[in-house]
Amino acid sequence: MLPILALFLVSAGAIYLACEYFVNSVEWLGRKLDMGATATGTVLAAFGTALPESAVTFVAVIFGKTPAARDIGVGAAMGGPLALATVAYAVVGIALLSNRKRLRRVDGLVRVDHQRLARDQSWFLAIFALKVGLGLVAFALKPALGVVFLLAYALYVWREMRSDDSVPEEEEELEPLKLCPRQADPALGWVWLQAVAALVVIAVASRVFVGQLEAIGVAMSLPPHLVALVLSPVATELPETLNALIWVRQGKERLALANISGAMMIQATIPSALAIFATPWLFDAPLLTSGALTAAAIAYLWWLFQRGNVDARQLLPVGLLYGVFAMVVALHFAR
């Protein structure tokens, strides 16, 4: 058990350190490519950190030789967005409250483009309604509808890249590129090198982290389905959560929430499309619960952001929904 715990902690530390390098390089990439802060988070950062999880779904549903193996991919396609919509947003709220004095945030308000994030939540809600609806019925043309999710993500990226983004003054300052700390304007090649190297470390360390988490579940005699549906999604979404934590500590919640929002869009579309292409995409009780709680979290976030003022404390309740999901899954498999 001690070697497992040691690898668990070492991999978690490696992910956090690599995320420090990744967010630093992503900010420079956004500057070099003349992208706004929100587009930098929703497109560049989200695509990079969501790539490993999407690869897991791809391998599970395309190369899985048994229905159980393919079910892992379906669970990942549903569990990832739930973890992001609940745990990741709650972490942002906790981080803002914890660093309020250091950031001189007396009011505790979240400084983001509220209308843009509210619009994102409406997209997510529509996509999840379609995902859950398809999981309730079986018909011959269902696999072809996976294309709809790919088109939805392409449209989202197109919209983000075209949208104007006014960046607050405090977010305009960039820390020096960690690979070239003495250069005021590092070459684009160094920026790409740091970003790719950090992503490789994040991908490898994440796989080790998830593996050790599953090993801990076995050692504690936890049901495999409980680990796959409840613990693994939190682990696989750790890079996005840590990115958000790092950016919040720097007072850049616009980038933090944009990263979560972009990752949610990827997780809600690309893995789902792959799973719909290759599996029956029919839901059991835990998957239906996952879809319902994700929709509830998204609806609550939409309500918050469309009001225009969001206090960090108002982000905390969505984290409780993941606890509800864990209890439902535990009771389901305890029968």
Oligomer state of the chains in this structure: single chain
Unreliable runs, pLDDT <50, ≥5 residues? 166-171
Distance between the termini: 28 Å
> Strand-and-helix sequence, N→C?
HHHHHHHHHHH
**Largest sheet data:** none
Radius of gyration: 19 Å
Q: Tell me the number of helical segments per DSSP (H or I, 4 or more residues long).
A: 11
Helix content: over 70%
Overall mean confidence score, pLDDT = 82
Q: How does the helix and strand content classify structurally?
A: mainly alpha
Shape: globular
Number of extended strands? 0
Range of strand content: under 5%
Task: Give the SSE map.
Layout: H1 2-32, H2 37-63, H3 67-98, H4 114-134, H5 146-162, H6 188-219, H7 224-236, H8 238-249, H9 253-278, H10 285-307, H11 317-334
Fold and architecture overview:
This protein has 11 helices and no strands. Helix 2 packs across helix 6 (188-219), helix 3 packs parallel to helix 10 (285-307) and helix 4 (114-134) packs parallel to helix 9. The radius of gyration is 19 Å and the shape is globular. It is mainly alpha-helical. Residues 166-171 have low confidence and may be disordered. The chain has helices at 2-32, 37-63, 67-98, 114-134, 146-162, 188-219, 224-236, 238-249, 253-278, 285-307, 317-334. It starts with a helix and ends with a helix. It is 75% helix and 0% strand.
